[in-house]
Design goal:
The protein is of the alpha/beta class. The chain is built from five helices and eleven strands. Strands 1, 2, 3, 4 and 5 form a five-stranded mixed β-sheet that branches. A three-stranded parallel β-sheet has the order 6-7-8, covered by helices on one side.
Length: 199
């Protein structure tokens, strides 16, 4: 069996568009899908394998799934605000295939490795897209930053002014300096709400 036949053997869907976004730029192409995975990106006029369903998107843009790095899911604890079931369905409907959940507004907030595991367990049965997590840096969790990093958070978020929820307090200058030093020690990432409530 030649390479083309091997690729075509499992193809069940071909998505064709005059505007397919690829690493090399936007161009006309036919995207062959096998088992839910892209098998090949071929010239636009490539004949589909026998039995494959063809969806011609015309001039509609076909692009890889998007990643939203700033989502407040609030689940568990405040899922009436937004839970994993609804947030990830809405993401999928908009072409977002991965989202990163912010560490505050849920109960518990993602400020310890145990709290992270709680959020992961809730998301596991409700998520419709891939989901990752930010950890939180608050005054009382300096010792928890490395375990959170080791457990897989993408980085840390902190506030320098009130966050709006009492379980996620702001860092003062001393705690910010300590958190920055700790996170730098293991090569982590810190994002800061740097608003000054006095100005």
């Amino acid at each position: 069996m030649d390479d083309t036949a091997a690729v075509n053997a499992g193809v069940t869907l071909v998505l064709r568009s005059t505007r397919v976004v690829t690493p090399q730029g936007t161009r006309p192409a036919a995207v062959a899908v096998a088992g839910g995975t892209i098998a090949s990106v071929d010239p636009h006029d490539t004949a589909p394998p026998p039995g494959a369903r063809v969806e011609d998107l015309g001039d509609d843009v076909l692009l890889p799934g998007l990643v939203d790095t700033h989502v407040h899911v609030n689940d568990p604890g405040r899922s009436a605000w937004e839970g994993f079931w609804t947030a990830t369905r809405a993401a999928a409907a908009g072409g977002i295939t991965t989202l990163l959940d912010m560490p505050l507004n849920s109960l518990p907030p993602t400020t310890t490795a145990d709290h992270l595991r709680t959020k992961q367990a809730v998301a596991r049965s409700k998520a419709h897209v891939d989901t990752g997590f930010w950890g939180g840096a608050i005054p009382a969790n300096l010792k928890d930053l490395r375990p959170l990093h080791d457990a897989g958070v993408f980085g840390f978020k902190c506030f320098l002014s009130p966050s709006g929820v009492e379980e996620f307090p702001a860092l003062d200058q001393e705690h910010l300096a300590r958190a920055m030093a700790e996170i730098a020690g293991f090569g982590g990432l810190l994002i800061v709400h740097a608003e000054d409530p006095h100005h």
